[in-house]
């Protein structure tokens, strides 16, 4: 029974030394002198700010993408002992001794290094030769732009890593189709879903690769459904497994990223105001301090501040002051000369309003308080001037299609007050819902100097239905205690004594943050290094990342022109060959065996499709674009290049002489790519001082001349 103890336990493993060697060389190329330069390089100034806020647990808002990428960079800082104390305000600023530069740049460098052996594995899993797989890895290894981006505290290399991991995992899963529901089958299927979710969690661009993998999986699943050898129950199990792993799991994982993000960032910070009052009140400090303990239900006589829920163009509060609209505007139109009502982006005593019952003169809260409910008609009295919020059929100063909003001044003329407002609690749970502080929501242009450059508030003549711009939220709230104006003014100037828990649920905070990320537009002003998608494919652009202050050594994001040009040609050749094969197959002429044809189609779907999915959408984007946006698409093009080379060598070169000549051409082409890598190396690593003439010669248009002269 115990015979197995009498023999040694032996474990055997197949080790691909090529993969090991590629991994080692990839690590050397990305990790060598990783702490150089010890200065802020280009977008490190952008990501570094968020890392410091993570270290201090301070909430921030970044509309450029989900939080996973920022959290991974912050993890490097945490493991390196970074305390967050560094001012990220200038490119080129020297890092202080407390900044763990190696730890902060380590994760992107590892991701870039591991993309090299991953390229080998993908081409191998597609069914192509060892030489083709090795060629893809070599191109990934010596592409200058990929090296530059991976050696800095940036996210493109991490995005490329998860893109490639998603494709590789799916190919591994697909190779297990003869062992369905085995542990390895489940492992690769699950890893595909997780990798797709991570790609989206790094940057929204990752959704392009996710949709690509999802599309390929849907086609394979459709073919599987048509397999009559499988029972209905078996087919149903296959479909459910794929749905759970590729649809449900990525969504759950994506939400988990936000859970960790919001758990870490629990303190109030500089970006709070873009969020709703309820969200701000859920953070430690800031608005939570102001609103702690204030009454929950708004009652007649309540003193409130009303914040615009849209937060655009800036967060602001309903405001009024003694000044009136000018009798005549600059364009010749007249006004009502009523007291101005604006939206003011700062805390101010003139932001306070009193909720009044139109049938009573009472301006303090009764005992017991009478809560205001959904659909009640109320008046809003400006706290400091005691005038009623009013709108009437007078054109607004800057938006003549809409009505002016004012505080009513009785001039004894035929302009009656229109100061009754019906309360609409838009997020109510029932029609008897009471108006609640922070939790309830009620349903710009800058004014000229006479309006103190504050934001215009207008009334719509006809209701267009619920819109974010018509929604206002009670932020600060207290029960008014005095009917006398002097005592009321003292109340309004005093801090609000505000004890009701307003902690939003995680799902509510996640929904709001996700919505803000998708709808709030950043300032996409022109940049000296911005470019268009057409500039990328021709490499007619570059970015100066860093310049040494004394030696003129510098780092540029500049691609290997041999790789970029040949990758573009390979993509075009793939499209032409595919069209040719399809036309021939339509005529029932099979140039390729069926297994070769399926391999060719799958390679195109994942590699050419990956390039198109990660490149073409940029033509539709209205944002500032840079060369590094093209790198994920380039990675897929690099995978396609040796696939096309093998196809040409095996199926288009008929004779041995043609194959020999083509092989020599491929070797010469790889040598040229290596030569350009060596020529551009000083701008990739930035460790070599350059004279002006040397720098001019390294422009890609002149690199061919250098290449020819050195040969």
UniProtKB/TrEMBL annotation:
Database matches in Pfam families: MIR, PMT, PMT_4TMC
Membrane topology, record value: Multi-pass membrane protein
Places the protein is found: Endoplasmic reticulum membrane
Single GO term (MF): dolichyl-phosphate-mannose-protein mannosyltransferase activity
Keywords assigned by UniProt, alphabetized: Endoplasmic reticulum, Glycosyltransferase, Membrane, Repeat, Transferase, Transmembrane, Transmembrane helix
Record domain MIR: where: 295-358, 369-426
GO cellular component: endoplasmic reticulum membrane
Catalytic reaction list: a di-trans,poly-cis-dolichyl beta-D-mannosyl phosphate + L-threonyl-[protein] = 3-O-(alpha-D-mannosyl)-L-threonyl-[protein] + a di-trans,poly-cis-dolichyl phosphate + H(+); a di-trans,poly-cis-dolichyl beta-D-mannosyl phosphate + L-seryl-[protein] = 3-O-(alpha-D-mannosyl)-L-seryl-[protein] + a di-trans,poly-cis-dolichyl phosphate + H(+)
Enzyme Commission numbers on file: 2.4.1.109
Signal peptide coordinates: none
Domain of life: Eukaryota
SUPFAM superfamilies to which the protein is assigned, alphabetical: MIR domain
Task of the protein: Transfers mannosyl residues to the hydroxyl group of serine or threonine residues. Coexpression of both POMT1 and POMT2 is necessary for enzyme activity, expression of either POMT1 or POMT2 alone is insufficient. Essentially dedicated to O-mannosylation of alpha-DAG1 and few other proteins but not of cadherins and protocaherins. Transfers mannose from Dol-P-mannose to Ser or Thr residues on proteins.
UniProt similarity note: Belongs to the glycosyltransferase 39 family.
Protein name in the entry: Dolichyl-phosphate-mannose--protein mannosyltransferase
Organism the protein comes from: Phyllostomus discolor
């Amino acid at each position: 029974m115990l015979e197995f103890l009498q023999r040694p336990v032996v474990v055997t493993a197949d080790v691909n030394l090529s993969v090991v060697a590629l991994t080692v060389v990839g690590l050397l190329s990305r990790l060598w002198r990783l702490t150089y330069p010890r200065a802020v390089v280009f977008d490190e100034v952008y990501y570094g700010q968020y890392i410091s806020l993570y270290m201090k647990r301070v909430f921030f808002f970044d509309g450029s993408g989900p939080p996973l990428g920022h959290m991974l960079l912050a993890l490097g800082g945490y493991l390196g002992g970074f305390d967050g104390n560094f001012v990220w305000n200038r490119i080129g600023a020297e890092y202080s001794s407390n900044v763990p530069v190696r730890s902060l740049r380590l994760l992107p460098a590892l991701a870039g290094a591991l993309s090299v052996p991953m390229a080998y594995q993908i081409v191998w899993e597609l069914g192509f030769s060892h030489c083709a797989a090795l060629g893809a890895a070599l191109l990934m290894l010596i592409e200058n732009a990929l090296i530059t981006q991976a050696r800095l505290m940036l996210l493109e290399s991490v995005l490329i890593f998860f893109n490639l991991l998603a494709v590789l995992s799916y190919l591994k899963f697909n190779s297990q189709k003869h062992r369905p529901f085995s542990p390895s089958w489940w492992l690769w299927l699950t890893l595909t879903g997780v990798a797709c979710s991570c790609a989206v969690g790094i940057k929204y661009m990752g959704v392009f690769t996710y949709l690509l993998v999802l599309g390929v999986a849907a086609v394979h699943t459709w073919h599987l459904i048509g397999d009559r050898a499988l029972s209905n129950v078996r087919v149903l199990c296959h479909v459910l497994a794929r749905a759970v792993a590729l649809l449900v799991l990525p969504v759950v994982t994506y939400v988990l990223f936000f859970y960790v993000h919001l758990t870490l960032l629990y303190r109030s910070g500089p970006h709070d105001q873009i969020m709703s009052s309820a969200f701000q009140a859920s953070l430690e400090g800031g608005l939570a301090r102001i609103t702690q303990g204030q009454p929950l239900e708004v009652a007649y006589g309540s003193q409130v501040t009303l914040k615009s829920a849209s937060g655009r163009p800036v967060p602001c509060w309903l405001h009024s002051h003694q000044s009136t609209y000018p009798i005549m505007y600059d364009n010749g139109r007249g006004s009502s000369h009523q007291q101005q009502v604006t939206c003011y982006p700062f805390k101010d005593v003139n932001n306070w309003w009193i909720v009044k019952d139109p049938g009573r003169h009472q301006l303090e809260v009764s005992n017991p308080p009478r809560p205001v409910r959904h659909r009640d008609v109320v008046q809003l009295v400006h706290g400091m001037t005691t005038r009623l919020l009013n709108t009437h059929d007078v054109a607004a100063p800057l938006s003549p299609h809409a009505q002016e909003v004012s505080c009513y001044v009785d001039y004894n003329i035929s302009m009656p007050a229109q100061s009754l407002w019906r309360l609409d609690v838009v997020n109510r749970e029932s029609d008897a819902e009471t108006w609640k502080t922070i939790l309830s929501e009620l349903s710009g242009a800058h004014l000229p100097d006479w309006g103190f450059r504050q934001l215009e508030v207008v009334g719509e003549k006809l209701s267009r239905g619920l819109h974010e711009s018509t929604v206002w939220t009670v932020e600060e709230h207290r029960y008014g205690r005095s009917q006398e104006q002097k005592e009321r003014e003292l109340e309004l100037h005093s801090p609000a004594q505000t004890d009701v828990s307003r902690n939003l649920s995680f799902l509510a905070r996640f929904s709001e943050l996700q919505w803000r990320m998708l709808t709030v537009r950043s300032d996409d002003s022109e940049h000296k290094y911005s470019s268009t998608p057409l500039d990328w494919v021709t490499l007619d652009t570059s970015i100066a990342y860093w310049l040494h202050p004394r030696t003129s050594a510098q780092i540029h994001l500049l691609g290997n022109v041999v790789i970029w040009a040949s990758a573009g040609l390979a993509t075009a050749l793939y499209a032409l060959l595919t069209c040719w094969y399809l036309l021939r197959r339509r005529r029932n002429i099979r140039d390729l065996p069926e297994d070769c044809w399926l391999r060719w189609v799958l390679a195109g779907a994942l590699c050419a499709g990956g390039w198109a999915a990660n490149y073409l959408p940029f033509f539709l984007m209205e944002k500032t674009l840079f060369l590094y946006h093209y790198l994920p698409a380039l990675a897929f093009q690099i995978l396609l290049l040796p696939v096309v080379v093998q196809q040409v060598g095996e199926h288009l070169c008929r004779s041995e002489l043609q194959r020999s000549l083509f092989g020599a051409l491929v070797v010469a082409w790889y040598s040229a790519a290596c030569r350009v890598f060596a020529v551009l190396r000083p701008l990739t690593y930035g460790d070599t001082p350059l004279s002006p003439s040397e720098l001019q010669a390294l422009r890609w248009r002149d690199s061919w001349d250098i290449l020819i002269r050195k040969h």
